[in-house]
């Protein structure tokens, strides 16, 4: 098993200047949140070869065999107004993931709203990576943002169906092992540039929208109140999902307790 080597990379200014690497952790997001509470600097990265309690949204499990994936979390300190930046940094992270994956492997991924990375395969869509954004609160006020990424890198095809029905990996898509250190660095490079652009006033919403899978197509949205069928029309300025329902009305769904799928699956 290759190790992710985390040498300090001089070409970046702030992201990954401090990388805290573990063989095994319950959850990189949990540790990054703790570090953020204890004052960890912007751009601190936690990475682990294995998570024993990896999480997706709403405490759904994120499963990955040891040493097979990139499992990392980044600490951000968005400037005021917190939520304006905090809504865009996860988009920048999703875009950075796509860019890093494309640069290193040539694989063109798409974003499954709100932020997972999917690829189109002959057998249908496959989920290559997940993103989990969590706001760190201090006395009820937002103090930091932690964005976690789980990228299925060298997971053997035979193992994938046991992780999730639509899981795929870069190994499965490309047929080759991918050097995780090279991918790690490429993703951080891309995320740093995109977050810098956000801070400089660029709105990444348009770019993020252009990378969303299934716009204009029929989709199913799983919500706590049941499944909603509709056409994925767009996203609004906050990043919320706009669907056209069968009766012709549009409805907007914010990021939260909802999961998107193309209608056929
Ligand atoms: P959703 O796709 O429903 O928005 P989340 O973003 O909450 O899901 O991610 C958690 C879900 O991802 C889990 O419920 C599981 O179905 C799936 N999953 C868990 N581990 C992996 C993995 N390594 N690769 C792909 N999908 C996974």
Question: Would you kindly provide a written description of the structure presented here, covering whatever features stand out?
Answer:
This protein is α+β, with helices and mostly antiparallel strands. The chain has helices spanning 28-37, 82-105, 170-174, 180-199, 205-210; strands at 19-25, 45-51, 69-76, 110-112, 116-121, 124-138, 141-152, 218-223, 226-235, 241-244, 250-253, 259-262. It has a 7-stranded mixed beta sheet with strand order 1-2-3-7-6-5-4, with helices on both faces. Strands 11-10-9-8-12 form a 5-stranded antiparallel beta sheet, with no helix packed on it. A hairpin with a 5-residue loop joins strand 10 and strand 11 (250-253). Helix 2 packs antiparallel against helix 4. It is globular, with a radius of gyration of 18 Å. Residues 56-57, 60-64, 116, 127, 130, 152, 163-164, 167, 259 line the site of adenosine-5'-diphosphate.
What are the SSEs and their pairings?
Blueprint: E1 19-25, H1 28-37, E2 45-51, E3 69-76, H2 82-105, E4 110-112, E5 116-121, E6 124-138, E7 141-152, H3 170-174, H4 180-199, H5 205-210, E8 218-223, E9 226-235, E10 241-244, E11 250-253, E12 259-262
Parallel strand pairs: 1-2
Antiparallel strand pairs: 2-3, 3-7, 4-5, 5-6, 6-7, 8-9, 8-12, 9-10, 10-11
Helix pairs in contact: 2-4
Bound molecules: adenosine-5'-diphosphate (ADP).
Order of adjacent strands in the largest pleated sheet: 1-2-3-7-6-5-4
Helix content: 10-25%
Count of separate DSSP helical elements = 5
Structural class: alpha+beta
Summed over residues and divided by their number, the pLDDT gives a mean of 94
